[in-house]
Design goal:
This protein has 146 residues and is α+β, with helices and mostly antiparallel strands. The chain contains four helices and seven strands. The protein is globular.
């Protein structure tokens, strides 16, 4: 198993993984836009998970993170987070933000375990088969060496 930067030939597989994992169903072109800030965890050329982020000055945002359903609860999400966190520390990021479907209890528990705390709600942010769903906003203050 290896961790690497995403490549242009990954975008179809990233989009398929996002859809299959219950994510927002990012298109291949959306992933292509964020290639430079997407990290991929793969095993024998199969993408097992990814994390996409954005950072500006001392703040970052997790835009998308997913692990294939067959490999969940094996620490792969933690491994992806650790890789993103290492990049944030190199970049001097002091705060990391994210949003998650309010009904995604497993993801919320994962983010709480990483130290994220709720900071707000976006009403009716996500659409889905059952209608609109709120987004829970979460933030983690990163430790700095200062």
């Amino acid at each position: 198993m290896s961790l690497r930067a995403a490549r242009a030939d990954d975008v179809a597989q990233l989009s398929a993984l996002d859809t299959a994992s219950g994510g927002g169903g990012w298109s291949a072109s959306q992933f292509a836009t964020w290639l430079s800030t997407t990290l991929v965890l793969e095993d024998q050329a199969a993408i097992l998970g990814f994390v996409t982020y954005s950072s500006v000055l001392d703040e970052a945002e997790i835009l998308n993170i997913a692990v294939t359903t067959a490999r969940r609860r094996e620490g792969l999400g933690q491994r992806l987070w650790s890789a993103a966190l290492a990049q944030f520390q190199r970049d001097g990021v002091q705060r990391c933000h994210l949003e998650v479907r309010a009904g995604n209890e497993a993801a919320i528990a994962f983010y709480h375990a990483l130290g994220f705390a709720p900071t707000g709600t976006r009403k009716n942010y996500y659409s889905g088969p059952a209608g609109r769903e709120d987004a829970l906003l979460m933030t983690l203050v990163l430790e700095t060496d200062a």
